[in-house]
Amino acid sequence: MPSNGEAKPPSPYAGHWVARLHGQVIAQGGTPEQARRAAQSSRFKESPEIVFMPTSIPLNFPPLLDSVRAALPDHKTVYLVGGAVRDLLLGRATHDLDFALSGEAVKTARRVADTLKADFYPLDPERDTGRVIVTAEDGKRTVMDFASFRGPDLEADLLGRDFTLNAMAVDVGTLALYDPLGGALDLREKRLRQCSPSAFTDDSVRILRAVRLAAAFGFHILPETRQAMKEAAKFLPNVSAERLRDELFRILEGPQPATSLRALDMLGALAPVLPELASLNGVAQPLPHVRDVWTHTLSTLTYLEMILAALAPDYNPDTASDLFNSLMVMRIGRYRQQIGEHFNTLLNVNRSLRGLLFLAALYHDVAKPLTKAADEDGRLRFWGHDLESADIAAARGRALQLSSDEIDRLKIIVRNHMRILNHTNRLAKEPKSPSRRAIYRFFRDTGEAGVEVCLLALADLRATYEHTLPQNMWAAGLDVVRLFMDNWWEKRADSITPPPLLNGNDLMHELDLQPGPLIGELLEAIREAQAMGEVSTREQAFALARAHLSKEPP
Known about the structure:
3-stranded antiparallel sheet, Beta Polymerase, domain 2, about 50% helix, 7-stranded mixed sheet
């Protein structure tokens, strides 16, 4: 017997339903029915008691669940299902809660929304699915979906899901766990296993989800599951662009996006989703590049992830992974708070700016196979690949049903990704820092996206050289980025967006001009001169406009 100071060993039946006769456990299962069937196989003439054995690890349910429970109708049993249960068992906080019940799901969702004074959407009335969105005082949202069983009962609903660790449910009223496929054990053993042989042919987008979960939680995809993913990859073109986009962004926003994309490529699942990337594999690049275009692209994503982590507001400088990271933190770590706030801004409420930056990194060199040519010395070049890549990236953004704001940002990042690198090469060789005019024109062309361009350029630089990166080249890149960030966050009103001295009406009245493109050209010339420190008064602005007009052809 354990002493008073020793912990009681967990029950071997913890988290399971058991069948008991005369106080003795005679069978167990993941659901009451499984325990009952197991008991009947040996004690078919007897009627055992079916009870749930509490989990050995206390489940820390979000406080919101108490409010949901209080809002539910008394006659309706509602189950928390899927990823939320998985995250509870992992001790992870979650803001996406899925509930399953036997009918009246939209009606129940509306009732919960009314009680909580939350937003309600009839997400899919044909399939009886409603959505409730609760927004906290700090702006964080919790999304709760209520859906009718996909099948005659809860067990059938769970058996039809993607992976065993997502095929668990908790009774919201009793907090009992339902685990018909042994998902809790797979979760403890870090195994990713499909619920049924047809899981991926039923819904091939689950291939992307499997790769994402493996990267996010360190799960091992079982061989038979991996083989099923390969066989079902051919069905991915049948999946809607919106669903592919959403899973792709979850991969790009999560940990190890490069590893995930490499895995998708090996499974034959990348080309159906992002077909333009297939041509990058094996395309050689001249020095200083040390990898082909595809491997370089994946390496860029890896370094970008590392750079964003090192510049995150909660970064611990004691964990700097290498000398180059340490130098970066010393040079531009002062802007980690501004960088964090920058990436908290949203172009679309459903997707992050971080995910869009990783998509830009994935496409930044996509046109190199199309622009490959030799110069006079026989050296391989990719003239104009940045402009061509921007157009290809924008086209893929449209195919993925991104918003117009996201497509514009994607195109700006890719189109301008070489500019910081060009300044870096010049500074390392001459040395010559970017001029005030260059800084002004860079942000005139990139705006807010200039921050992402700077960070992508650093990742691109590291991926170009990898272990051969000279320290002076990295120092030059950091100096360029620091200069641009200094101007963006500390001198913007002087060097990037000076207050206007004149407007179009002033110019038309003073210089007897008609409305037209010329007015915009004059205003831009004045703004640039202000940023250079050459113009600071209205009189000087008018003088510059007159000088500009004198150079115009008659």
